[in-house]
Every structure is written in C-alpha cells, then in structure tokens.
Amino acid sequence: MSIVTDDLLWERMNRAVETIRQRLERAAAALDAAGIPYAVVGGNAVAIYVGLVDRGAVRTTRDVDFLLRRDDLARATAVLERVGFESAQSFGVNMFLDGPDALPSEAIHIVFAGEKVKADDPLANPDVTESERPTTFQVLTLAALVRMKLTSFRLKDQVHLQDLVRVGLVDATWCDRFPMVLAERLRGIVANPNA
To answer: How far, rounded to the nearest angstrom, does the alpha carbon of residue 48 sit from its chain's CA centroid?
Structure first.
C-alpha cells in the first residue's frame, strides 16, 4: 500500500462525504420539483437529527435511502433518470446508480412506504406523510425513524439507535411508544448505548 499525504487523505474523505450530500440533494430536488412524496431515511436521516444536536457525533454512510410509495416508483424512476441516475435492482432492492460506473453500495436505495422490508419484520415501514423538513429535503420524523430502526434492527440500525441515545434524542421514556418487541429492543440500547 502506498503512503498518502495527510492533505490528500483529508481531501479524499471530504470529497466522499460531499459526493453523498450532492447525490442526496440532487435526487430530493428532482422529486420535490415533480411533486413526488418521499422521505430520506436510514443513516443520512440519523445524521441529520444527530447533527442538529452534536455535529461531532455525526456518522457518515455510503448510500442514500429514500422512502417512496410503490405507486410512485415509475414516476420517480423517470424523474431520477432525467437528472442522471440509472435504475437498477440488486438482491431485490430497487436502487438508482449515480452513473454507469457507480457501485450499488453507493446508490440511492428505495424502501417502500407501508410495506415490510422482510416478511418477518414486526412492523411495516411508515408512510411518507410521517416526515418533516428540517433541512432542504424531507426527512422521516424522528419517531418514525426510530420505529424503522427498531423494526429492522440490523447491527448498523443498533449503532444508529445508540447514536440517537448518546446525543439525548432518545431515552427510556420512548419505550412506551412502541409495541413490546420494539420496546424491548430499545430498552437494551438505552441500557447500554456504548456497547
């Protein structure tokens, strides 16, 4: 492995984060202009909320997750393709690659409102109406985002929940908002947010 100068390393890291931001904002602006309801979810939504409280605690992510209604997918596809994205599917996930050489891990991934991601998920995804605009684009509300994270509960979801607990956005009082299976998951995170 070759040695990279500090300046070059920082430039690469900054460029990577900036590329994600530009991709998200370009897609959101196109959906907004077309009047297609959506909400940013996943790691970027968590980063927005965490950043409102403690910018030093923000965690970056490679992909961008959008919540859409399935009925809007065809219109969203046409709109996103007009601004340079390419529709694709990988392992059953609808996504939009940012050009022909883009990686699926850096794509815009689509999650469908009102549907379960996996058949055995305890709850379906929220609707896009459970969103707000804390920045220049729609973001799932914090309560709905926490519910989604508790539902999927993969390792990265648990880490995102820990981030929300550590900055004080979520605490033990939130457990009463969710069905028992989700409440138990949240109790475990709240009890040990640094695990």
So the answer is: 10
* pLDDT at res. 42: 97
Look-up of token digits 């815009």? 108
Q: Which domains does the chain have, with CATH numbers?
A: 6-141 (3.30.460)
Round to whole Å and give the CA distance between 3 and 1: 7
Q: Could you give the angle at the alpha carbon of 70 between the alpha carbons of 65 and 74, nearest 5°?
A: 95
Cα dist from 110 to 8, 15, 27, 191, whole Å: 33, 24, 12, 32
Q: Record the pTM.
A: 0.92
Q: Is the confidence at residue 195, as pLDDT, over 90?
A: no
Segment 122-142, tens digit of pLDDT = 999 999 999 999 999 999 999
Q: Give the pLDDT confidence of 11-21 residue by residue, as tens digits.
A: 888 888 888 99
The identity of residue 183, as a single letter, is: A
Strand partners, 40: 66, 139
Residue type, 59: R
Q: Which helix (H) or strand (E) holds 45?
A: helix 42-53
Q: Is the four-CA dihedral 64, 66, 70, 74 of positive or negative sign?
A: negative
* CA 88/CA 90 separation, integer angstroms: 7
Q: Could you give the CA distance from residue 114 to residue 118 in angstroms, rounded to a whole number? A: 12
Dump strand ranges (E) for the chain: 39-41, 64-68, 86-90, 93-97, 108-112, 131-132, 139-140
